[in-house]
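Tokens as discussed.
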């Protein structure tokens, strides 16, 4: 299962993706666009020379082909990532969500972050793209009026990830996880 969570900076996509993965547990890979682009590749956004879209697609395919569920999150602007994401979404069982949050609310949420990135509202305005939908079948728009709890629960429920079994070696076939899951056989010495 590929779960894509997109939205503008400050929309709550990273926090939502991390919580969805935490609730699912082992067997779900989390791929964060900002981490790949900024930390792994040290790449600026945009431009025809960017490597991040294809790099992310390769990571997603590798994890899915290894029986991981994948949660991919990021701004993932349609103009830069659409041609890369649409084939992935068509190729694998997928659910796609767009967190539709107004510019003013993204700024408020950004200011309330525990560790906000050092950018101004004006910089954020330059990144903001209103309803930047991919236009893929079944894409769901999540309104800003939903609470965080409702967003996470809705995504886990409507995507099917909340009911999906882990297929990866850990926890399905990993000896360490099997040992932890085994019932205790009496008191420990």
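Sequence:
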């Amino acid at each position: 299962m590929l779960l894509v969570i997109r939205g503008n900076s400050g929309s709550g996509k990273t926090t939502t993706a991390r919580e969805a993965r935490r609730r699912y547990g082992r067997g779900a890979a989390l791929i964060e666009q900002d981490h790949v682009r900024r930390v792994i590749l040290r790449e600026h956004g945009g431009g025809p020379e960017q490597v991040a879209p294809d790099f992310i697609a390769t990571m997603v395919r590798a994890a899915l082909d290894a029986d991981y569920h994948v949660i991919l999150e990021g701004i993932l602007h349609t103009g830069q990532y659409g041609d890369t994401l649409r084939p992935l979404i068509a190729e694998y069982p997928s659910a796609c969500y767009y967190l539709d949050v107004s510019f003013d609310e993204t700024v408020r949420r950004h200011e309330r972050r525990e560790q906000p990135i050092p950018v101004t509202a004006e910089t954020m305005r330059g990144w903001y793209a209103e309803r930047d939908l991919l236009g893929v079948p079944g894409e769901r728009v999540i309104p800003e009026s939903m609470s965080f709890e409702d967003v996470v629960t809705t995504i886990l429920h409507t995507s099917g990830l909340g009911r999906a079994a882990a297929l990866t070696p850990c926890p399905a076939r990993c000896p360490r996880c099997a040992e932890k899951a085994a019932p205790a056989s009496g008191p420990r010495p």
